[in-house]
Amino acid sequence: MKLKNKLILLYAVAALAAVLCVGAAVLAGIERLSIRAIERQLLDQSSLAEIYIVQMHLLRDDREGLLSAETARDAIGKLSLVLGHVRLYDTRLELLAAASTDLAKNITEDERLRLLSAAQKGDYAYLARNNIVHFASPVMQDDRILCIVEIIYPASFFRSLISDVVMVFAIGAVLLIVIMTGLSIVIAGKVTRPIRDLAEAAERYANREFRPVVIKGSDELVRLGESFNAMGAQLQEYIQRQKQFVSNVSHELRTPLTAIIGYSEILWDEMKERSDLRKAISHLNCEAKRLAGLVDEVLTLSRMDSGKETLAFSRVDLSGLVAETAESMRLRAEKYGIVLKTFIETGLTIWGDREKLIQVMVNLLDNAFKYSPAHSSVSVRLEREDGHARITVADEGIGIPEADREKVFERFYRADNVRHVPGTGLGLSIVKYIIDAHQGTIRLDRSSGGGTAVEIKLPLI
Ligand SMILES: Nc1ncnc2c1ncn2[C@@H]1O[C@H](COP(=O)(O)OP(=O)(O)OP(=O)(O)O)[C@@H](O)[C@H]1O
Ligand SMILES: [Mg+2]
């Protein structure tokens, strides 16, 4: 997951957790508060009922200690006007009078009995069920229980208050998460942009493109960006100096090498009767030519790097070019004991640099000969395919290990299986440069003969 998305998710989860915690705390608080408020209200109401009942009893009842059913009924008549659903029981828990209501059936008779028994012990008791509170308390007269009053109190108001609060919190939570997500998108974008810029700059540096990265602000990331740019500048300078050095040395080597090749040839001509010296001079000449070849390759690459290697494009008869180059290499193939076969479709023309394309063919054939055993065959094929010319050079040699097929285009890279064959590892990198400059493609594969097949595609005109 991207760093930006991770941050956004983190902010949203944090906002949700905060809302849930605050919501749960507020709800618990409201619940506790409502229970206390109901309790206090019912205690007040029961005290009121007690005062009223005791007064009525003192005024009306002649039988000492007992509340008559008539007094109870009258008391209920008045109390129900103020307190709503009230019921009165005598000390044996028999119902004396009740305001007519269905709410009484909210609890079973057994539950009511337990509730009233608790009140009979002298203290108040209550039972809440289906948002209705049944509150029972003894009515005392001169330290003796006169009767028991049950107040049935619908607490739906508090329930609806709680569900209102839940609703407000739910809406608040949704809004908060939307706002937080919006904000976090902006914040995460700001935080991750410099990191993304730095990552992109690192990728560019890896491709040797040292464009500096610009990071605005005044934090650690800005310092990191500055250090990054300083590092890039140093690296660029170092690479530049290294290239310049290679180019200078190659140039300096060229003149003495040409002299060595020239003089060794003169000496070889002059030493007709000294066959031992001739052998040594011939060896000297060969090595000097090999070294001169290497110097030329290094110089070509150095010119490519500095953009000084320009290609001279013109109309090229590719069929003729491939056939002629293959023919010119036939002698060399025979030297290696290799049979060179050609299958060339005629009339294929491209827009390209003739000399460079010859260089490509020479390099590919040279590799095919070098890395193949004697008596094997190498085939050169040229055919038309979907507006392209396809050149295939296939051999039956040692092949390129699959893991190395991309790496061999890098400079100086040579696969492990060719250590016994001389070479510098520059040929294919030059070939790739030339093919790229022709808007073509090059691909390495395993040939049907178990060796290497190089496939090049170039756009036809
Ligand atoms: N036909 C082939 N068969 C087997 N391996 C090959 C073949 N062509 C290229 N390679 C591998 O690719 C590597 C790079 O090839 P490249 O032509 O760039 O360098 P080289 O042949 O080693 O040296 P030089 O610069 O003299 O051509 C070779 O060293 C070899 O490992
Ligand atoms: Mg080569």
TrEMBL record:
Keywords: Kinase, Membrane, Phosphoprotein, Transferase, Transmembrane, Transmembrane helix, Two-component regulatory system. It catalyses: ATP + protein L-histidine = ADP + protein N-phospho-L-histidine. Pfam families: HAMP, HATPase_c, HisKA. The chain crosses the membrane at residues 165-188. Coiled coil: none annotated. PANTHER family: SENSOR HISTIDINE KINASE TRCS, SENSOR HISTIDINE KINASE YKOH. This is histidine kinase.
